[in-house]
From TrEMBL:
This is 3-hydroxyacyl-CoA dehydrogenase type-2. GO terms for cellular component: mitochondrion. It comes from Pieris brassicae. It comes from the Eukaryota. Gene3D superfamilies: NAD(P)-binding Rossmann-like Domain (3.40.50.720). InterPro entries: NAD(P)-bd_dom_sf, Sc_DH/Rdtase_CS, SDR_fam. Keywords: Oxidoreductase.
Amino acid sequence: MFKGLVGIVTGGASGLGKATVEQLLKQGGRVVICDLPSSPGADVAKQFGNDTAFVPVDVTSEQDIRNALQTTVDKFGRLDVAVNCAGIATASRIYNFKKEQPFDLKSFQKTIEVNLVGTFNVIRLVAGLIGKNAPNADGQRGVIINTASIAAFDGQIGQAAYSASKAGVVGMTLPVARDLAKQGIRVVTIAPGLFRTPMMDQLPEPAIKQLESSVPFPSRLGQPEEYALLVQSIIQNPMINGETIRLDGSLRMQP
Ligand SMILES: NC(=O)C1=CN([C@@H]2O[C@H](COP(=O)(O)OP(=O)(O)OC[C@H]3O[C@@H](n4cnc5c(N)ncnc54)[C@H](O)[C@@H]3O)[C@@H](O)[C@H]2O)C=CC1
Ligand SMILES: C[C@]12CCC(=O)C=C1CC[C@@H]1[C@@H]2[C@@H](O)C[C@@]2(C)[C@H]1CC[C@]2(O)C(=O)C=O
């Protein structure tokens, strides 16, 4: 279905990103996995075979993303789709009254830097390469897909930094889609609810069970493959643009 399609997936060594890489490959695409040098990205690429490459990147670095784009062109000749999955989850209350300690500013800045600035950095750089493609019959040159979170809308206690970073991704989706509309590049954001990934696996099982029971239906954590299926649908459907799609089993997070 995606024969000839070339994608970049940030955070592609783990969780939602890794499932996306697998789905794109299954559909006949070729994929560059971008993830931290400390990630298992090299092993993951080896496991997936010749239609993948791993480029160690920090999404906040311009040079790293330029290197990834150069590898994409050298190895696969073009870029059609970029999926932003790289992200970190942090938690802290705005003020700890017992310790008389305000939220650590560096931690806030780091969360914004990776989740928001990193996503922006990738979008602004991949747009140039996708824009070089010849348009299809519909005028489309490619698609950029971002990952926010339902925390962008229903931020819980302790999520000021994480929610702000993800709300920033939601907020820039429409203006960036408008910026790139003339070039025929679509921009869409997915806001996942609770998904079973290494990010979530850090929690003790009883906490996971409790989180599962909070999802109305289906009352379980989402599977990374279900996120990847939405990525596939977004790529396939040319009318989806400038929108954030919740993927959450109708969960609305409690305070
Ligand atoms: N798992 C969940 O329930 C949900 C996840 N999300 C978001 O989905 C995205 C993927 O999360 P998961 O797959 O669950 O997490 P994960 O922890 O399994 O994967 C995240 C990947 O991002 C990479 N990464 C982190 N910082 C990076 C940086 N500066 N540069 C490059 N790569 C970096 C990590 O090395 C890791 O491989 C994240 O943005 C997360 O905030 C959103 C809502 C729910
Ligand atoms: C903070 C949460 C929820 C409460 C808990 O027992 C453990 C947690 C750690 C992982 C967090 C949990 C929740 O806030 C939702 C997120 C932030 C989760 C990591 C990803 C997450 O599912 C998300 O981004 C949801 O939108």
